């Protein structure tokens, strides 16, 4: 039998002794084609490998995903229930652990404990001054574009989409731009779930721990101080981990959202024509990007508390289930091919569902919309500088972010900061 060419669905499925390798799926040229192949083979719940020898169930059905996110009495968020981790199938040095191991934060809790740890996040987001955030993000975006606009070309991922969310979040938590860029380097390693993942996690947590301790000595008007003072957070570990969740989840997902919205505009002429022709707004573009490439293509994880059945498969107690947001958004039962009249539809699962639904949807959209609008306004004729098929992807089983998004545009001098009157 001939060997399939690299990147094709059949090649991906042959990895790992017959199971699809999840990092290979996410990094393939056409993940939706791979998900559809898996659906044909397995149904809406497919067996995959997270890394060699570490299996999991990838939940690809829209309704099945809603089931596991809404039934925490059966499907727990607490990684201490992960059988393969407890039994040593997942080695202690695994790059999966920074993303999937248990932490004393909202992500790893269920029920009343989850609600206790969720409240500080909700309260902190509610206290944000959205107008101030928008003005600051717009000024940051303008500065970044001004730095490369004169040369008529840029990498819109590494010079723009990757930097905007981290520096915006760093500012909210009282960190300077140098600390923000150090956090960014650490997070790229953490989300890669590869050999440097644990080192990235240690660096990331140390920077934030130093900040927490400094704010305890010298409180200021920032989000770090809000978390330190919140009565629901009982110790330093909980305060640190709450900030870890906000910055890590917020940065990676917004980076992906900005990148994919810009990529959609640059690679889909029909969509770009509708947008530039005024038939679609920026929010329509944002939502279409969420449908096609949700910020977390795959989200770890749920762990079965009992033997059960899902999607026609027997799920054993302790099994790991991955939330396949991208595959579920492509479920033919909810979004048949060619459904252009669905543009603007927000019933996607990009923000998940149930008790653990993303708490930061409003600020995430605010930052992403501002970044995209600013780029469209200041670089109206930007175009992709390479064929779309040449785009490659950062290695990760979770997020699908282009390694680079090279663009060209008319060179122009842009003031480094927007006049205050135009920021309103």
List the helices and strands and how they pair.
Elements: H1 9-14, E1 20-21, H2 22-26, H3 31-42, E2 45-51, E3 54-59, H4 62-70, E4 75-76, H5 83-86, H6 97-100, H7 111-126, H8 130-149, E5 153-155, H9 157-161, H10 163-172, H11 177-192, H12 197-217, H13 223-229, H14 236-267, H15 269-276, H16 282-292, E6 299-304, E7 308-310, E8 313-315, E9 320-323, H17 325-329, H18 361-378, E10 383-384, E11 406-408
Parallel strand pairs: 1-2, 3-9
Antiparallel strand pairs: 2-3, 4-6, 5-11, 6-9, 7-8, 10-11
Helix pairs in contact: 8-10, 8-18, 10-11, 10-14, 11-12, 12-14, 14-15, 14-16, 14-18
N- to C-terminal distance: 63 Å
- The SSE order reads HEHHEEHEHHHHEHHHHHHHHEEEEHHEE
**Per DSSP, what share of the residues sits in E-state strands of 2 or more residues?**
5-15%
By DSSP (H or I, 4+ residues per run), the number of helices equals 18
| Principal-axis shape | globular
What Rg do the Cα atoms give? 21 Å
Mean pLDDT: 89
The structure class reads alpha+beta
Percent in helix: 40-55%
- Biggest β-sheet description: 6 strands, mixed
Arrangement of strands in the largest sheet: 1-2-3-9-6-4
Let me know the number of strands: 11
Low-confidence stretches: 1-7, 418-424
Task: Summarize the structure in words.
With 424 residues, this protein is an alpha+beta fold. 49% of the residues lie in helices and 10% in strands. The chain has helices at residues 9-14, 22-26, 31-42, 62-70, 83-86, 97-100, 111-126, 130-149, 157-161, 163-172, 177-192, 197-217, 223-229, 236-267, 269-276, 282-292, 325-329, 361-378, and strands at 20-21, 45-51, 54-59, 75-76, 153-155, 299-304, 308-310, 313-315, 320-323, 383-384, 406-408. It has a 6-stranded mixed β-sheet with strand order 1-2-3-9-6-4. A 3-stranded antiparallel β-sheet has the order 5-11-10. Strands 7-8 form a two-stranded antiparallel sheet. The protein is globular.
